């Protein structure tokens, strides 16, 4: 059975971009609900024997949408929490910086394109930085619970732009929330996700 992961930081460190109350709802209620739903759906079934990423891929193949949504949202959120760091923000360093420069021309170009993808995604979903099958960076705007692992891509970073990610702290001002992401983004985590792709 799956468990809600602890946040890898104190809930107060990102105020006012994300407040403690924001995390109480986003992590403590929304993410927790996906975990509880997932456990209920797989209990006493063959799904309970599979790792999370296999559940995501196979449930989508079999069009088991309820299972897919909850499994993918558990994966997406668990990944997202690690994309934030109290020591984050600033300019990227290391391999991720090199790939951003070669793929987008500059960090500012990348930041503008990623922010635009996050702000303009209609409805609910996720803005992802992924490594494609050619080991080049791409920006992917994915609706609802969709996740890069079903497209054969390697997730590097993500930003949750479902309303529940920002409404408590920013109401309908998604652009303000997206701008705050650059003060929290965890470049060390991005570099960890690139290991094996040097």
TrEMBL record:
InterPro entries: Mn/Fe_SOD, Mn/Fe_SOD_BS, Mn/Fe_SOD_C, Mn/Fe_SOD_N, Mn/Fe_SOD_N_sf, SOD_C_sf. Keywords: Metal-binding, Oxidoreductase. It is an enzyme of class 1 (oxidoreductase). Residues 2-85 form the Manganese/iron superoxide dismutase N-terminal domain. It comes from Rapidithrix thailandica. Residues 92-193 form the Manganese/iron superoxide dismutase C-terminal domain. GO terms for molecular function: metal ion binding; superoxide dismutase activity. Mn(2+) binds at residues 26, 77, 160, 164. It catalyses: 2 superoxide + 2 H(+) = H2O2 + O2. Belongs to the iron/manganese superoxide dismutase family. Its EC number is 1.15.1.1. SUPFAM superfamilies: Fe,Mn superoxide dismutase (SOD), C-terminal domain (SSF54719), Fe,Mn superoxide dismutase (SOD), N-terminal domain (SSF46609). This is Superoxide dismutase. Destroys radicals which are normally produced within the cells and which are toxic to biological systems.
